[in-house]
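User: Before I run my own analysis I want an independent prediction to cross-check against. Here's the chain; please return only the structure tokens and, at the end, one sentence I can use as a sanity check.
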Amino acid sequence: MIYPPVLRLLTAVVLLAVFSLHAEVSQLWGNTGEKWTPASRLPDFSFAGYRRGEEPYRIPASSISVADFGAKGDGRTDDTAAFKNAIQAGAGKVIRVPAGKYLLNDILRIHASNLVLRGAGAGQTIFVFTRSLDQIDPHPTKNDGGTPTSGWSWGGGLVTIGDSLKRGISTRVTAPAGRGANRLTLEKPVFKAGDEIMLTVNDTPEKSLLQYLYHGQTGNLSGLNHWQCRQIFRVRAVNGNEIVLDRGLRFEVRSEWKPAVEPFRPTVTDVGIEGVTFEFPAAPYAGHFKEVGWNPVAIRSGAAHCWLKDLVVRNGDNGPFVEGASFCTLENIRITADPQRRGKNGTCGHHGITLEGNDCLCTNFAILTEFIHDVTVQSAMGCVFAGGHAVNLDMDHHRWASYENLFTDIDAGSGKRLFQSSGGGQRGMHTAAGETFWNIRSESTIPWPKDFGPDLINIIGLPISDPQILDPNGRWLEIFSPGQLQPRDLHAAMLAKRLGK
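Assistant: Structure tokens:
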């Protein structure tokens, strides 16, 4: 007789052996990353997310409740003052929000670090904002086409984390370095091992930096001026004027780009929002650029190492925005809408989830309706969308030189508009080089995206109708049998390799 635990083990061994016979691997990665190097055309995505994926969220030991400050959560009482007072007292604490429906009429701004706003779960704690951002703080503007609209059409949140990034005193980099290198030579020794630093490079009047990012296939750049790129590192060692970095450079360092490093000093860290539904009016969606700012959360550029977890956004004009922040994680975000919310063109909102920043991660997301742009990267570098699913996914690349971002292990649903993208036509092509699409499944087969980005992007394990092409200096399209590409999630594989797991 074979005991059940032994039977399960034998079954697992057999299944693993059968699976291994059919698994297929990319020539850019191999089985366990043995074909990959930091200078590879396949970028390093292992640093995306909270604390670089190296530790769990830092949860404060002490807690308070919004009920301690008078919040009722009865769906009738205005609880705004109670929430503001709790946030004011909440630094270094978990602010518990019991189950209930909380009416709020103003923006909740979080400027303190080490603060977690924690609901009882997305199905139990509900935030109902009674005024939109445009009603609270009108922000009239025009889009790139000159159409009058609101600035809240594509940004901002009724809960806002952090403020603008504070810049420090910079030190010049005095020697060139190649992409993938992990050493910089400075004009003087000013850092020590363990410091977090930010490298910045600046474009020339001839736009040579943008030409580099787009690998010479730029599109119209007239709307991108004085461009700047940055990358954040931890100093691993110091040898005189040379510093050793914890990872490779995403871009070359050239003297013409005036490279400099400075301390990385985010104004807010370790803020989390968990277990909440944001419920907005179910009125029909008015349409593109007619949004009034029913937006749940924005993480500003001064924030780093923050997270959003277990959130539902119902009937929003937009979903969460990461607006220039770094090393943030969005986990289990669900975007949904009531049937009556659907507008004339069939969509229910503008931007579903937006990553605009450095090394941020959105994982296990669900887009349960259709937005004009389901998930978006804009001016993003090293950001990752992983492990999500959608009704009919649109991986929007909103121009503005997004560079080396990853979409991996995603069920795109019908997949009829995978590469449909937008943004002002004078802001460059939709994406710059290094953009990587890995193991995206859909019901539809589509051609290589036209006028989307330079040839130097990576499409691996997608339902593309074009024949396979593996050009080291041009297009890279690897075709695999459905469901057989391994690893399924490139970000998780890269992180496991870096951490030695």
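Sanity check: The helical segments are 4-22, 80-88, 133-136, 208-213, 490-499.
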